[in-house]
Amino acid sequence: MRIKALLGSVVGIADSVHWGQVLSSPTAYGVVEVEDSDGHARAWGLKVLANLSDQLVDPPKSLKVTREIAMKSMEERVTSLILLVPVGMVVYVVMLGEGRVSLKRGSTLSVLMEKPGAISGQVQEGDMMVVMTKSVSQLLTHDETSTLFDHSDAPAVAEKMTIALHSHPEAPEGSVAGSAAIIIQVKGLIPIEEERTAMLNGKSPAVDVSLKSRGKRAWQTIRRIRPRHFHPRDIKRRLNNLPDAWRRPMMPITIILIILFLLSVLLGIRRQMGQKVEARVAQVLAQAQYAFDEGVALLELNPVKARERLAQAKTDLFPLRESLAPSSLEGKAVAKLYKDVVDQLTVAMQVNRAEPLLFYDISLLKPSAAISSLGSDGQTLGTLDVRGPTVATITIPAKNGKIVAGGSSFVGAKLLTVRGDNVYVLVDDGIHAVSLRDGKTTPLIIKKPSPMAGGDTQWGSIVGMVSYGGNIYLLDVGKSRVWKYVATERGFSGMSEYLNPDTLPDLSQGTGMAVDGGIWVGTRFGGILRFNQGRQETFTPRGIEPGLGKTIVVATTEEDKHLYVLDSDNKRVVVLDKDGVYLAQYVWTGTSIPTELMVSERLKLILLLADGKLYSLQLK
């Protein structure tokens, strides 16, 4: 579909110094104004219009191309050059020099442009676009222009504008030399199929008008030179009237004619279907090009919106890319635009591709040791080797490691967390505390609830342990609970539930948790759960391309501005803000599949646990 426009134009009196004119072609509209103190304004203006006409034979495919056409046609003596190019329901507008472009929608007239630049947008049926040169915009203010409409159509508005200009008290000698304006009113849509049919018949809308003006005789002449088509029944009836001597030899001819007729019908149907496909491709290309142009323009101003528009362009083009033949003209056009979209989307998505580097091998401290669990507090990283069993710490900036605890009392250890000068280790019977100052272990500073207590006061299956604000939180996927132990002067309080009684989330698929004042839980169904003050809050990641896999592990702290998501299925770490908006991702292709991550925004470091060793990625 394309815009069906009703036009109104305003052109002032020209002299040797001032000249203005309106551009109206099948592919574009616009205005030009020239000032030349040497007295050749008209010659320069006609040169600009000729250049524009040559370059606008085919409609521009993008806002960028439209701007390039205007720039190539621009001359030093031109004070206003404004182009308006409709592509489907999308309009590209480019302004060089001075002037004004306004849009009237409903009862509101809004100024779109008053300075040089390029914009694009989608119009609606009933809209009016007012494009005026420097002379007109300097005389008629926005409010004065608004009074010209009063439910009038484009030609009537143009007439009122002409009167307003000539009667304006500030107009020199009652006229405005070199002024020009055009009003484009969107009256409806013209199907692309109708335009293509006209072109195939060797006609255009302009040719049709000229033919009608020649009267009935011209139409009769055209009809006489058209080939006459017969229905098969007519052919058969005429053959039956032939003598027998003629009938038999004509049978093969009859069959051939019928076959040719059927073939012509099939070819006609195929041609119509092809035209519909071409029209659909053209429409999708125009929409995708518009989304692409808008996305590129927004990259620096609004990266989130830019990613949305580029992703929309990719979504629009993908079905065409899969269905069209790569060697066809349409297939080549779609493939080129799709590649441009993917390239820009990669830039907009902040996709950082790098292989994780080996950061630390715990076997350097103890032969055959392998890290099974991590915990951190600032620059101190705690590690647990369940096979040893061994507890060690690593100073992250210097990569200095040392063993701080281990032995039989740590048999059955599963998880650990670090807070201040203590490492807390979850074992079968409870939680041990290891002092980093003297290496002393305080056994079972928190005891596992006794089975005799019954009910939900027992632990189920603990998969996450975090120390925050001196308190300890346990993620229990067996009971779908988050247990909380509050720090006291003598140790820790008894077990309590973090979640409110009316909050009953399903935590059975949890992979671990992070605490920053609220609690974040990664899952094995590709979701992220967020809790605050004991209540679940809605959290929906937005803008991630491709979508998250099934196994999700999260990491953040109260010091971190962002949430970091380990997406093992897609071998990447995705960075979100804490409202769920996508920011960046770090992608690798190696064979290792990390199971845990720790992040330090202060040190600009991502640490990944894979195959019992620590690997690192640099944050950008």
Give a quick set of tags describing it.
Phosphatase 2c, domain 1, alpha+beta, Methane Monooxygenase Hydroxylase, Chain G, domain 1, single chain, five-stranded antiparallel β-sheet, Neuraminidase, 35% strand, elongated, 620 residues
Quick take:
With 620 residues, the protein is of the alpha+beta class.
Written overview of the protein:
- It is a single chain.
- The chain is an alpha+beta fold.
- It has three domains: 2-190, PPM-type phosphatase domain (Phosphatase 2c, domain 1, 4-Layer Sandwich), CATH 3.60.40; 228-348, Methane Monooxygenase Hydroxylase, Chain G, domain 1 (Up-down Bundle); 357-618, TolB, C-terminal domain (Neuraminidase).
- It is 29% helix and 35% strand.
- A five-stranded antiparallel beta sheet has the order 1-10-9-6-7.
- Strand 21 (462-468) and strand 22 form a beta hairpin.
- Helix 11 (303-323) runs antiparallel to helix 12.
